[in-house]
Specification:
It is a single chain. The strands form three sheets. A seven-stranded mixed β-sheet has the order 2-8-7-6-5-3-4, with helices on both faces. A three-stranded antiparallel β-sheet has the order 9-12-11. The chain has a two-stranded parallel ribbon with strand order 1-10. 40% of the residues lie in helices and 14% in strands. It is of the alpha/beta class and 365 residues long.
Length: 365
């Protein structure tokens, strides 16, 4: 272990924990600002006063002593809100993906995933015996070829998984075209909506373009929703299967009731505060105007600035942090060897002055 750590440090990829300090946030996933929203905090405090016992531990797996009326009511609310048959909650989106992909795949199955898919999906699928193939990022031709190949060779199910909004590159998947391709080849589509939930509407506006059934949707409440938790949405059969066969669900102590209540409160708060999404749109527009011509601009809050030279990347982030701008350098193995970048994330509370300062420091004269 020591040798591996030394090797990682020498190549500039060593990760360390740093204490948070005050500054301008260009690195968190708090896309709508709920994690620092004073009104939302007050509503959660009021919720806790109304349900004081809900903060306590659940005492066990949901199959034993960890279930409750509150948990089941919140899951029913989420399923109805997203027009799905059932929902199942987990501590976070990573746990949800681990539970889903370690469980539903058999050795006869094929999982076709976008090459930029989140690490949690890789990790979950590695716990299965299914064949795992990658297609080039958002490349419909490459996906088509793999679907044809899977149709010829596979005796089991074919699954395709994409992110609606990619967590590192910040671009959107061509969901409508992918859903048409998947259906035409008799495959099943899974969409991870962790980074789009709340940003493009609470029931992701991308979903409205999809004309065909989705096998499963994965949501994460630790980004724009401002809290924590994750959910798998799908058919009653899928959720019942997870309850019976998914080890991360069966053998884990469940979250507290308050965690579930906070998820529901987050939905209500965002519905009552449409100005947050509008403010984010304005910030993205300001960023687009300020950085036009110097980098590719994405439609969402994630704006990666690619700096493949590790020394230049380190110097740039150090300079930004020294001026109180919190930015994060994303390096291998979180991204490919040639895709090191500053992952800039935008929020309603980022001002035009903040963005202009960021631009000045990134591109010093």
């Amino acid at each position: 272990m020591h040798k591996e750590l030394i090797k990682r440090k020498e190549c500039g990829h060593l990760r360390e924990l740093n204490q948070q300090v005050d500054g301008i946030d260009f690195y968190s996933n708090d896309y709508l600002g709920l994690a620092r929203n004073q009104l939302f905090q007050e509503q959660l405090h009021a919720l806790l006063k109304a349900y004081p016992a809900a903060i306590m531990g659940s005492t066990g797996s949901r199959l034993i002593s960890g279930n409750s009326r509150i948990k089941m009511e919140v899951e029913a609310f989420i399923a109805e809100f997203h027009q799905q048959e059932k929902a199942l909650l987990f501590p976070n989106g990573y746990a949800a993906n681990l539970a889903l992909f370690s469980c539903i795949l058999n050795k006869e199955d094929v999982l076709i995933m976008d090459e930029k898919i989140h690490r949690s999906i890789y990790d979950g699928s590695r716990l299965s015996f299914a064949k795992r193939w990658k297609f080039k990022h958002n490349d419909l031709h490459d996906l088509t070829e793999l679907l044809k190949r899977a149709s010829r060779r596979s005796t089991g199910n074919i699954f395709v998984v994409v992110e609606s909004l990619y967590s590192m590159h910040g671009d959107l998947a061509p969901i409508q075209s992918i859903s048409e391709l998947v259906t035409a080849h008799g495959a099943k589509l899974i969409i991870d909506e962790a980074h789009s939930l709340g940003v493009f509407g609470l029931d992701c506006s991308l979903k409205q373009e999809i004309k065909f059934p989705i096998f499963a949707r994965i949501l994460s409440y630790g980004k724009a929703m401002g809290i924590y938790g994750g959910a798998i949405l799908g058919s009653k059969t899928l959720i019942d299967y997870l309850i019976n066969f998914s080890s991360p669900f069966i053998y884990s102590t469940s979250m507290s009731d308050f965690s579930y209540l906070a998820v529901k409160e987050s939905y209500s708060f965002i519905q009552a505060q449409p100005n947050l999404a509008n403010q984010l749109k304005q910030v993205i527009q300001d960023f687009s105007i300020t950085f036009r011509g110097s980098m590719k601009i994405n439609p969402g809050p994630i704006q990666p600035l690619f700096i493949p030279d590790p020394e230049v990347l380190h110097q740039t982030v150090t300079r930004l942090n020294a001026h109180g701008l919190h930015c994060y350098a994303v390096r291998y193995p979180a991204v490919g060897m040639t895709e090191s970048c500053i992952r800039i994330t935008l929020h309603p509370y980022n001002t035009l002055k903040d963005i202009q300062l960021l631009n000045t420091l990134i591109q010093p004269k």
